[in-house]
Amino acid sequence: MSTFYYSLLFLVFFILVLLAVFLFWKVRILKRQNKLLIRQNRDLNSISLPDETNYYKLDPHLLKNALNAIQSHAYQSYHALDKLSNVLDYILYETDGTFVKLKDEIAFAQNLIEINKLKISPLFDLHIRKKISAEAGEMLIAPFMTINPIENAFKHADVQNENSFISVVFEVIDDYFHLTVSNRVMQKQKIDSSLGGLGNKTFSKRLKNIYGTEYSLNTEQKENIYTVTVKIKLYQND
């Protein structure tokens, strides 16, 4: 395998490690909450109450809320692992050739986005738009052309700002695939081609080696909004 594939596998391994740490942290918190509930219950049992209130031990709504929280974390973990499984399938089994179907590359990108959503609040403004016809989805593109802009958006977005956002737009215009990724960055943060280091350089080099002059890669920062636009020639799937 090339250095790019080893880097990609390392990225997947790193995500798995982060997910494992996240789950371990959540389990520890839930255990502490459970111990606290048990201690509170014992304290309540030790208090002498009037007969008419002696039936009270623990608010059932509190237990219901705790159960809902556990179910929510379990669903998020299952959902992320399912998306990660799809990512691994794509890397291992669907990218042996030079090109893949555009619809498969888009599905891969959407799975990456779902995994990265673990890093942000459920209320974060994440906007995804896809304007690709069924016919265009059958056209061919080099694999992993969507990784770099999307990963950088999640890495550098100002997630603490209430007006922050990430926007990802997939579309096909005149047999060219357009990927536009925008995000708000922190004030006074200047993003340039060197940010991201080797990843950005490798992405630019792959585009040039595979597509020659049949692509464009543009970056722009206006105030605190950073935008990457990638335009790639699609080939017919004969």
UniProtKB/TrEMBL annotation:
<dbReference type="Pfam" id="PF06580">
    <property type="entry name" value="His_kinase"/>
</dbReference>
<keyword id="KW-0812">Transmembrane</keyword>
<keyword id="KW-0472">Membrane</keyword>
<dbReference type="InterPro" id="IPR050640">
    <property type="entry name" value="Bact_2-comp_sensor_kinase"/>
</dbReference>
<keyword id="KW-0808">Transferase</keyword>
<feature type="transmembrane region" description="Helical">
    <location>
        <begin position="6"/>
        <end position="25"/>
    </location>
</feature>
<protein>
    <submittedName>
        <fullName>Sensor histidine kinase</fullName>
        <ecNumber>2.7.13.3</ecNumber>
    </submittedName>
</protein>
<keyword id="KW-0418">Kinase</keyword>
<feature type="domain" description="Signal transduction histidine kinase internal region">
    <location>
        <begin position="57"/>
        <end position="120"/>
    </location>
</feature>
<dbReference type="GO" id="GO:0004673">
    <property type="term" value="F:protein histidine kinase activity"/>
</dbReference>
<keyword id="KW-1133">Transmembrane helix</keyword>
<dbReference type="InterPro" id="IPR010559">
    <property type="entry name" value="Sig_transdc_His_kin_internal"/>
</dbReference>
